[in-house]
Amino acid sequence: MTTLGTVVGCCRLEIEHLRPARLPAVAGISLRAAAHRISVEWNNELGDPAVGVFVPGRRTDSHLAVALGGRWFPGVHRSARVDIREVSAGFSWRVEGDGEFDIAVAVSLPPAPPAPMACDPIGGTCLGATIGLSAGRTGVLEGARMEPERREAREVVVEELHSRFIAGFSTAELAPAYLMEDLGVTWTRAAAPSVTPVAASA
């Protein structure tokens, strides 16, 4: 049996044709976004265990997502520059935000076909999580459900990773990283767990 600790990571999204489900693709917008994610587990309203991620912060190059995030749909976003460069062996991406959220990542792509999301425990945790939790504009926890049309991913090799947030976890060890591409995704609101404040000890 494999025992997992907390999985902490960063993800980059490149989205095309983002729009309400009832509208055609031509009415959608394109954007780039990035976020940090921390694996979490809680009991849902039925008392059953639920697995998801907590997102402490999101950045995007879309002014519309910044304006509507946390209002029209769950997920507060802040502005940042998100650059992506493709090379023959892979790609790199960089997020330049407000100094608190700067990321630089370079990966190479081994010649291997996509694999099931549960190809290893880390992959199952990272790619199998369907609910993202984050603080709304008033500080109340809100949830968003991500439902991709399939859950296949290609493992990539991380050649470079610079993140102040991840560097703050001094005992962290590098885990496998994955690329999901060319798939449709639906986002909907999800119930967030209630949080009971912990009283400070005297």
Brief write-up:
By secondary structure, the protein is mainly beta. It contains three helices and 14 strands. The strands form two sheets. Strands 1, 2, 3, 4, 5, 10, 11 and 14 form an eight-stranded mixed sheet that branches.
Describe the model.
- The chain is mainly beta and 202 residues long.
- The chain has one domain (8-190): Acetoacetate decarboxylase-like, CATH 2.40.400.
- The protein is 9% helix and 46% strand.
- It is built from three helices and 14 strands.
- The chain has helices at residues 63-68, 121-128, 164-167, and strands at 8-18, 29-43, 49-54, 58-60, 78-79, 81-87, 90-96, 103-108, 115-116, 131-135, 141-148, 152-163, 177-179, 185-190.
- The strands form two sheets. Strands 1, 2, 3, 4, 5, 10, 11 and 14 form an eight-stranded mixed sheet that branches. Strands 6, 7, 8, 9, 12 and 13 form a six-stranded antiparallel sheet that branches.
- It is globular.
CATH architecture type: Beta Barrel
Give the overall silhouette.
globular
Question: Which fold name corresponds to the CATH topology?
Answer: Acetoacetate decarboxylase-like
Helix count, DSSP H or I runs of 4 or more residues = 3
Which percent band covers the strand fraction?
Answer: over 45%
CATH C-level label: Mainly Beta
Mean pLDDT: 85
- Low confidence ranges: none
- Radius of gyration, whole Å: 17 Å
How do the helices and strands follow one another from N- to C-terminus? EEEEHEEEEEHEEEHEE
Structural class: mainly beta
Helix content: under 10%
Largest sheet: 8 strands, mixed
Intertermini distance: 40 Å
Give the total of domains: 1
Give the tally of β-strands: 14
